[in-house]
Amino acid sequence: MEILNSIKEEPITIYHIGNEWWDLCAGPHVESTGNIDRKAVELESVAGAYWRGDVKNPMLQRIYGTAWESEEQLKAYRHFKEEAKRRDHRRIGQDLDLFSIQEDAGGGLVFWHPKGAIIRHIIEDSWRKIHIDCGYSLLYTPHVARADLWKISGHLDFYKENMYDQMNIEDELYQLRPMNCPYHILVYKRKRHSYRDFPIRVAELGTVYRYELSGSLHGLFRVRGFTQDDAHIFCLEDQIKNEIRGVLDLTEQILLQFGFSNYEVNLSTRPEKAVGDDDIWDKATTALRDALDDKGWSYQIDEGGGAFYGPKIDLKIEDALGRKWQCSTIQVDFNLPQRFDITYVDSNSEKKRPIMIHRAVLGSLERFFGVLIEHYAGDFPLWLSPIQARILPVTDTLLDYCFELDKKLKANGIRSEVLHGERLPKLIRNAETQKIPVMAVVGPKELETQSVTVRSRFGGELGTMKVDEFICRVNSAIENKTFL
After folding, report:
1. Is 73 in the active site?
2. 312 is known as an active-site residue
3. Which ranges form a coiled coil (predicted)?
4. Quick one: which of 427, 425, 431 has its CA closest to 387?
5. 104 & 24 share domain
6. Which of 176, 304, 331, 471 is the most exposed place for a label (fewest CB within 10 A)?
7. Which domain holds residue 468?
8. Inter-axis angle of helices 365-376 and 114-133, to 10 degrees?
9. Would you state the torsion angle of the CA atoms of residues 326, 332, 338, 344, taken in this order, to the nearest 10 degrees?
């Protein structure tokens, strides 16, 4: 009755088969369950669910199931589900001690453990180097700001439900930042700019805070505090195409490091309600399209799917299971430059408004790390692995040599450790369980010849080699981002 009362359109349709099955639905249904391949249908689980998704309503029982055209499709789906479960970043993150979410601190707040923090450090270092090489200036900005800033930006009017309550500090209201954009604009506004200054590119690994309901939180994929690899480009109208092309090249360079080469790209155009005149929208949209054509990437047009403040390009990466993940975004913005009244002086000494481009490559570091864990199933490549080589002594009488070797590996930039106290087969099993990419086994013969016997997680037994050769081969694999 509640659903019926909420339907305002007519006619209301109820589909039925005989007097056995009546459904508040437009139909049609199959006339007989015999038309369905029963071997292609499977019930999966049950769970509680609030009626119509509202916690104020009664809790009902929800039954989950899946249906396919054939038994073969169902088997393929089961395999996919099992593989996705095996790769679940929450389980792997716990097994490998990469991160945690501590309920004592609150849901949706990520603790990066030493091993996870090492991987993040490597990603961030690589990100910074590439950006500096591409002409970006790096920024660090505050986590809070006066609430007035978010009123100017429009977030308090259009984004308030995703923001935390304001804090009263000495009779002034402050707000945790949900975005980094206003900060970068303030850095731009600190001085007068000439047309000769453009393009101006600034980038920041900036942590933001978004209000999320506890029921929507999910591992690293949906959290309340996360770090964006945020960047903003201030440029002239005739520079948009080249800047977008530069962002596409930078995006590809970063993503290819992690093995992501298949992308789904969408170009979203002007929606019905938008700021900015038709001329600038046409120029910006054409520039985005031309940049994509120059790059040679295939893309789809999402007519009317752009933000109210400008057209955009969205890029989804494809992981090892063929799943698509929203990752990079490039957005032209006509709104914030107007709201903050940012200007530059053109060649005729007149004040003009610059074009602002928002862009992120990885999106959220937390979410991207979750995608990486599931993409690799925890088997990180050598260059990313928190422990690259584990030294395993046959007996504890060889520990002095092992610690000397460990010291030498570290001095040559290799993340290594010594593990002992168990029989060698168990040490090897533990290393495999912890997905250590390289094991260096040391016995009396290795001590005598100042060598190691190398076992690679991906390459198998590599034989015995001198320590210097081992270091050279490991460093070469790290530098080329290949396996040993």
Report:
1. no
2. yes
3. none
4. 431
5. no
6. 304
7. 389-480
8. 110
9. 130
